[in-house]
Write a structure and sequence with these properties.
The structure is a homodimer. The longest helix of chain A has 21 residues, at 109-129. Chain A contains 7 helices and 3 strands; from the N terminus they run αααβααββαα. Helix content of chain A is 66%, strand content 8%. A 3-stranded antiparallel β-sheet of chain A has the order 1-3-2. By secondary structure, the first copy, chain A, is mainly alpha-helical. At the A-B interface, helix 1, helix 2, helix 3, helix 6 and helix 7 of A face helix 1, helix 2, helix 3, helix 6 and helix 7 of B.
Chain lengths: 155, 155
């Protein structure tokens, strides 16, 4: 008796599920995170912490809620990650002089060094991800991603 | 003193970060999950459980490790989700008659009913996600997603 006779597989379903944009997007993001984590294991920071460091590296200084948006986390998770990054000596939090309710987050020198370690790896994985796409296909793909993000946000 | 003078923003960084495919992909998947969860709150199952139900709905019957691949979870997390789905009466686990080390997972009638509730909502969100893209653009986008997934898996 073959494996096949033990199972009720509907091959038509396979195609439909795996061709859904959401299926591919979920798998891409999962695989991307696996790749980043395995390439940057030695740095010893979580994916969320990497996104925080990358965001601060780009923007210079962000409020906690801006960080929640860019680095994708709810406020409590973000606060715990920032506590930990502060303990590691990678970020500094200070009260805004303009609005005392706001706390502004910045990278320390050590944090900036971690950023310089992470950044080229993330850039390289991003470049290799779109290997095989012509420049105009990359451009179209990037535009489509922007459109889809916009569609989801206004849905 | 304006908000701006309190902060060291580098606007050039903003563009670079937000245009990275990984940034957009992360945000798309996050927003997609938020949308699905808010639309399907009444069903009362987590995203992982929805992915499990959608996978079983498509394939009929899967081993635990096949489910880990399709629904994206490590074995321990998957086992806990399956325990819970079994308690809710939505899935059934049985030993393969062919290979006694394998456990095959199937939807129960109740699980199938949940699948029929989830499926059209997921399909509609997927369709609306690509609103504004011409059929040939959708096709190209889908091909690009396939290519990128393949690139990441062979990186």
């Amino acid at each position: 008796m073959s494996m096949r006779t033990d199972r009720q597989i509907r091959p038509a379903g396979k195609t439909a599920l795996e061709q859904m944009p959401s299926y591919r997007l979920n798998h891409i993001v999962h695989q991307y995170q696996q790749t980043v984590q395995s390439r940057l294991r030695s740095v010893g920071v979580s994916m969320l912490k990497m996104r925080i460091i990358m965001s601060l590296r780009s923007y210079g200084q962000l409020t906690v809620s801006e960080l929640c948006n860019h680095a994708i986390a709810e406020q409590p998770t973000m606060s715990r990650a920032l506590d930990s990054l502060e303990q590691q000596g990678f970020v500094r939090r200070e009260q805004s002089r303009v609005d005392s309710r706001l706390r502004l987050v910045t990278l320390t020198d050590d944090g900036r060094r971690v950023g310089e370690e992470i950044h080229p790896v993330i850039m390289e994985i991003n470049a290799r991800m779109t290997d095989g796409l012509e420049p105009e296909q990359r451009e179209a793909f990037s535009q489509h991603l922007g459109q889809i993000l916009n569609n989801l946000r206004t849905m």
